[in-house]
Amino acid sequence: MPDQINGATADGTLARLLWEAQRTATPLSHGCAPDLDVAAGHAVQAAGLALRTAAGDPSGGRKVGLTSRAAQQAMSAHEPVSGYLPVSTIGAVATEFDCAGLVAPRVEVEIAFVLARDLDGPDVTAAQVVAATAHLALAFEVVDSRWAGGPPGVGALLADDVSAAAVIVGPEADPATDLTGLRVTARVGDVRVDGDAGNVMGDPARAVAWLCADLHRRGDGLRAGDLVLSGALCGPTPVRPGDAVEADFGDLGSLATVFVAR
Predict the structure, then answer these.
(1) Do 235 and 193 form a contact (C-beta atoms < 8 A)?
(2) CATH superfamily of 58-260
(3) Taking burial as the number of CB atoms within 10 A of a residue's CB, which of 28, 92, 102, 167 is the most buried?
(4) What are phi and psi of 139, to 5 degrees?
(5) How confident is the model over 214-252, as pLDDT tens digits?
(6) Angstrom distance (rounded) from CA 26 to CA 184
(7) Nearest to 146, CA basis, from 6, 20, 52, 2
(8) How many other CB atoms are found less than 10 A from the CB of residue 137?
(9) pLDDT in tens, 2-24
(10) Is this model's pTM higher than 0.70 or not?
C-alpha cells in the first residue's frame, strides 16, 4: 500500500483502497491521502460509488452527516456533509445484527425518508420533502471509519462515504408527522443516549432539503425509491458484540436489535 497517493488517477486509486479497507477490515493510514479538501473528498466518493455500481452494488439512497453544530465543530466543518448508501448495506431490522467485519462500529438513531418521487433543485423546502415522501422509517445507522483512528478532516470523511457501513430499517411512520419536536431516548449496551430534532437542523425534513441543494450543486438529485437518512438524532455511540441497542421514538414507536459477531 502506498504511503501517499498523487497523480491523475488519485481519485480512483484512493476509492479502491478505501473499499478494500472496508472489505478486509484493515483501516488506512492518514498518510495515504494527506490534506484532502472537500472537492477532492467528493471526487473520491463519486469514484467509490462508480466502483460499487460496476460491481453490482449501486446506491439505494443517501445520507446526511454532521447535522448538528457540535458535530461540525468537531470536524472543523461549516455545514453538513452527504454520502450514499449501497444497496447491500440496507436491511430490515431483525432480532440480531451481525457486526462481524467492522472495525470500530458506532450506532446512530435516525429518521429515514423513503421517497415516492424524484426530488431535485437548489431551493427545495422541508414541506416539499414531506410531500415527496412515501413514508418515514425509524432507523439505526451503523458507521465505521475506514481511516485508522477516524478521518483526519472533512475531505477524508467525504472520501470514505461519511463512514457509512450499514442501515437497519425499522417500522414505518406517517410522512406528515411533525418532527420538529421529536425526542428520542436510546440505550446502547449499558449507555443511555438522548437526542432530539435539534441535532438534525431542527427538523429532519430540513436536512433532506439541504441534501437536495448539496446534490444539485454537483448535478445530482434524489430519486423515487431512495432511502434517505436525515442525520443523527443522538450522537454516534460505540457498540460491541453482545450489546442490545434500543431506541424509543415516542409516539412514532420503537426500534431494537442485538449486535452480534458471527
Answers:
(1) yes
(2) Fumarylacetoacetase-like, C-terminal domain (3.90.850.10)
(3) 167
(4) -150, 155
(5) 999 999 999 999 999 999 999 899 999 999 999 999 999
(6) 34
(7) 20
(8) 23
(9) 444 443 357 889 999 999 999 99
(10) yes
